[in-house]
Structure formats: structure tokens, C-alpha cells
Amino acid sequence: MVDVLVVGGGNAALCAAITAREAGASVMILEAAPPEWRGGNSVHTRNLRCMHDAPQDVLVEAYPEEEYWQDLLKVTGGLTNEKLARMIIRGTASVRTWMKMHGVHFQASLSGTLHVARTNAFFMGGGKALVNAFYRSADKLGIQIRYEAPVKSIDLEGTEFKAVILESGERIEAKVCVLACGGFESNREWLREAWGQNPNGEWPADNFLIRGTKYNRGTILKFLLDAGADSIGDPTQGHCVAIDARSPLYDGGICTRLDCVSLGVVVNQFAKRFYDEGEDFWPKRYAIWGRLVALQQGQIAYSIIDSKAIGRFMPPVFPAIKGNTIEEIAAQINLDPLVLRATIDEYNAACKVGTFDHNVLDDCHTEGATPEKTHWALPIDQGPFYAYPLRPGITFTYLGLKTDETVAVFFDGKPSSNLFAAGEIMAGNVLGKGYTAGIGMSIGTIFGRMAGQSAARALNLAIKEDEYASAE
Predict the structure, then answer these.
(1) CATH code for the domain defined by 2-183+218-236+398-469
(2) How far apart are CA 195 and CA 197, in angstroms?
(3) Which residues form the FAD-dependent oxidoreductase 2 FAD-binding domain (predicted)?
């Protein structure tokens, strides 16, 4: 029997496992994927959103706690636990030192990284390099790692953890368990149940693409909710991005994202605009667009730009659909050319062009358009024209396990003494809706470390308290 069993193999799981091992616990990681697909959604990440009161190596200027909190408050619309959120925020100020100790390297943000040089620290080599570094460190520390070991159920005695049961039927006992095995975004049946049918008789979830791993099926989340664990969050809310409709079903990752939305207009299959494309900086708004597209008939939309936008956004992995006229574009994407022309003409006529600057919330806006475009509104009038088809791309879901600052799993309002959760499986405590770039890795890293510390405390092991351990 090991001291600590960690279910999951991504960033949060690794942070929990390494932290518990550093405190002296024996640790085993159960990763559902084979070695070549290990790491879950973490392999697709790029950066960590970090609080800092002054310039820090790769981070420029300052990003104080209150600004970080206000950014999170804005994107979630207040659907967040402030105590837990501030705990994460404060933790990001110092956690990179620990990450570097375990082989993670950071680099300065490059051009095209979307206004986040001040707020986000980028991983050198991306999420795959981060995951590999943590696995190397785990191996050196003597942490047992078992691949292709999906967990089917958990043996509980009241609220106390006893063992996990693998899909193979094997029973593995431990003194403490940390759950860091993601949401249910890869479970099509659960997505269908959550989203239901719309008034047009469609099942929107049938048209969702999964940006990350196919292994996050929510098996343990569902088991625990059925067993009486307290839940947090809305099953239809999540990190849902508008991605290229030509993307693969799974593991398309960040390269499938379209970053030109704020530079043009987005229309649905009826060639009509449906939301303000220039509401705020793209890192603060990209994760609402998947849901916006999901609410459109057919769960399809099209980003339309002209030649002025080329070179102003990160090049996508799929080529644009190109046409010399708006009507030519419409024909290629099966939209009514007269309606699309009318939509573009209405938008162009409403544009009040000031000083265009994609690096600030500029004064280029519309007046009289429906909906209005708040910033970066330039007429779409310089051919050739370009279109990208969009589908909802689910990264992770927000329905999860309710926890407190110890990240204990709660049952009927009472915390378990030896069952903890970290990462996407409990992210709904902080993310009720919306997203801002890098916050997912902040949640996984800080709460992963806290889960490891809580596991050590449950074992009565001596641990080094981090600065973020106090949420007061």
C-alpha cells in the first residue's frame, strides 16, 4: 500500500504527486493514457498567469493581485469563490521558483502572443516540455507511475477513501488519494445530456470538437457525484473556444484556435452577426466564443476578414477560404450572398474609424450596427477577402467537485479526511463561467501543490509551508 495515490497524469496531478513525495510520502500516479499520450490537456498549454508586483525575469512591468482578481471577476461575472481565487493568485507570485527546481523553463513572450507579456509566463517548449520535465522529476524522486490504468470506481467508507478499482478490476489501496483526472469533456453522452436539445431539435453537443485529450471522460467525477459528493458549477459551462471547423475530433490543441475574430466580423449560417467581436482583448474573450457558436443553429459560424487583417494575428493551422468578392466568399461557405453582402454593408456603414491599434482598446467602433462592435472596427472593404469556419471546441468542463482551501472533497457539506481534488475536476470553484488566458494552469499548479500538501498533512508528515498556503 502506498501513502498517496494520485489519479490523473497532467499538470495538477504531477504537482500534487511531487509535493507529497517531497514531504516524504510514498506516491503512485495512475495515468489513464499510454506514455505517448500522457499529460492530459496540460500538453496543449503554453503559459501560466502570474501575479507580480514588479518585473520578474520573463515578466514585464507589474500585475498586482487586485488587477488579477478584477480580471477574473470580470470574465466570470462574479461566479467565483473569492477566497480560493485569491489563494491561487497569491500562489502564482512564487510558484515558478518551485517549478524551475523541477526542470520547467520559461521564456519571454514572443510577438503575436496576444497582449500577455505582462501577465503570463510562457513555458519554453510549451506544455509538452513542462509535462516531460515533471515526469522526469517524478521518476528521479521514486514516484511510481502506471500508464493505461483508468480508474472505474472508488471504494469509500462514508467520506473516507479506501481504494480505487481500475477498469481491469484491480483494486489499489492507499492511505490518501488525490483526484486530478480532468472534467467530462470527452464524454459525448454526458455532453448531450447536459446541453439537451435546442428548439430546432438539434443536439448541440453532437457538433462539439474536443481540443484536448480523449481520456477525460469524467468517470470518477460522475461516480463521486452519484455517491453524494458535493458539486459545483454548471455542466454546460466550460473552457469552450471557437476553433476551426476542420479540426480533428480530439487533441487539436491550441493551433486550431482562430485569433482573427476581433479583426473582422463573425456571422452564423444565416449570414447574420450575433455578438460584439471587439468587446475586449482576445485573451479575455476567446473562451466565450465557443459557447456563442454552440448557441447558433447548426453550431457553425464564420469569421470574415479582409486583406487589412492579414499579418495582425497568429497564423492558423488551416488555410483561409479566399475570394475576391464577398459574394464569392459566400458561395464557398454556402451562405446567401445577398444576405452576407447586406450584413457586411451594414457593418461597414456603421464603422466609426479612429486610430486603429490592436494593442489597446482603441476608438474604432460602430454606431447603429446590430450588434455593435466596441473596438477595432474597420470596414471590410479591401479584397481579397477571407473566411474561416468555426465550431465549438471544448477544452474542459466546469462542473466539478466542491472543495475548500484544503482542496478536500466535500460530502453533504463535510470535508473528507483523506480524499482531495485538484485541477480541472474542481476548477468550477473558481471558474463559474468565462476564462482568461493562463488561469487553468494557475488553478492546476497551485491547487495541485495544495493537494500534495494536504495529503502530507493527512499523513502527519512535516511539510514546508508555501507563501500561498494562507488564504487570509
Answers:
(1) 3.50.50.60
(2) 7
(3) 3-432
Residue 467 C-beta-side C-alpha neighbours within 13 Å: 13
> Within a 10 A sphere around the Cβ of 356, how many other Cβ atoms?
16
Q: Which of 143, 68, 165 is nearest to 446 (CA)?
A: 68
- Average confidence score pLDDT of the chain: 95
Q: CB within 8 A of 9, min separation 6: which ones? A: 29, 30, 31, 32, 33, 38, 39, 40, 145, 147
- Residue at 373: amino acid letter: K
Helix (H) or strand (E) holding 454: helix 439-458
The CA–CA distances, whole Å, from 444 to 121, 227, 267, 449 equal 15, 24, 35, 8
8 A C-beta contact, residue 455 and residue 26: no
Q: CA distances (Å), 319 to each of 161, 392, 443, in order?
A: 50, 19, 34
The answer on pLDDT for 469 being more than 80 is: no
Which class does domain 239-393 fall in? Answer: alpha beta
Q: Quick check: 308 pLDDT over 90?
A: yes
Question: How confident is the model over 175-228, as pLDDT tens digits?
Answer: 999 999 999 999 999 999 999 999 989 999 999 999 999 999 999 999 999 999
- When pLDDT is averaged across residues 267-288 and rounded to a whole number, the result is 94
Return the DSSP state at 62.
-
DSSP state of 282: H
Rounded-to-integer distance, Cα 150 and Cα 449, Å: 23
- CA dist 138 and 13 (Å) reads 11
Closest by CA to 467, choosing from 102, 87, 100, 121, is: 87
Q: Indicate the pTM of the whole model.
A: 0.93
